[in-house]
Amino acid sequence: MLDLKLATFLTLCETRNYTQTASQLNITQPAVSQHIKYLEKYYDAKLFYYDEKRRLHLTEKGKLLRSFAQTIRSDSALILEKMMAPPKKDNELKLGTVTTAGESLVPHMIAQYLKKYPDMKVSLYLGEADTLLTWLQEGRIQCCLTDAYCPSSTYESEELFEVETICVCSPQHPLAGQTVDFQDLNAYRLIFRENDTNSHRNLMHILQAHNQELGNFQSYIEIGTINAVKKLVMENMGISFIYRFVVQENLDNGTLKQIYIRNFSSRNTFSFAWMKNSFFTAGSLKFLEICKTVV
Fold first, then answer.
1. 286 pairs with which residues across the strands?
2. Fewer beta carbons below 10 Å: N end or C end of the chain?
């Protein structure tokens, strides 16, 4: 259970506003001030300061305490669940992953993990990169596989592999296996995942790097999951930019073909992350060992 004063501190870190913090926690604003003053006295450190525009900021000591409190909050939620679990039924790994990896690569990792630790249970949660880090802080998951930046002040992380984004199409598409200029893609329909996903943001970065926008293409389809994107591409409904590891099996069996683009390169790094100084670090490291053997 997270101490009320630390809970107040974390909420103030998020809102940067004493009034909003009081409202969210259903306490008075003077109570918020008292909690912060108590922590500053206890730790003998200033935790917040105002800039010249009266905006609230964390001090360096405040950032350190935030990292500590976030780990406590995360571990508290996970420990509570384990304490309430029936005897001999608390050996569960709660793992999060970005959807693109969760629908392709991560199931292989879980299979290898369970071969080595057959008595373990695994709960896999799929979400976007930013959501995964929130779930870590809330204690919904113990560790995650993500392509997002994980600040070292809050998370422990290790880079696992670098992934390439490629352009793919149906074997029946006119550009299948061809080498073209980026502008040659404009004559075709572009298929991609919905907005507010990391996959969509990756696509926007690619287009901006080549002075392109969605309106330049003949048309487009925006859809929810990466598997739906793949199926539409296989049906020759258009082209798509996808991480290579997501479509490697399709490339190998010929159900998808790559379109080679001159002077094009797009790479991202996938990392394995967990809360810094977490009680569950040992369990996370066991799964990390398996990840390294798969990739």
1. none
2. N
Question: Which amino acid is residue 222, in one-letter code?
Answer: E
Q: Which of these, 185, 245, 237, 229, lies nearest to 210 by C-alpha position?
A: 185
How far are the Cα atoms of 11, 15, 66, 76, 172 from residue 24, in angstroms, in the given order? 8, 9, 18, 20, 56
| Share of residues in the chain with pLDDT > 70 (%) | 97
Please report the DSSP string for 82-103 in residue order. Answer: HHHSPTT---EEEEEEEHHHHT
Q: pLDDT tens across 185-220, in order?
A: 999 999 999 887 888 889 999 999 999 999 999 999
Which DSSP symbol is given to 225? Answer: -
Q: Which residues contact 26 (CB under 8 A, 6 or more apart)?
A: none
241 close to 192: Cβ distance less than 8 angstroms:
yes
Q: Is 196 helix (H, G, I), strand (E, B) or coil?
A: coil
Per the listing, tokens 């029946």 go with 172
Number of C-beta neighbours around residue 158 at 10 A: 13
CA distances to 216, 217, 225, 233, 277 from 190, in Å: 10, 7, 15, 9, 44
- In the numeric block, which tokens belong to residue 142? 């113990």
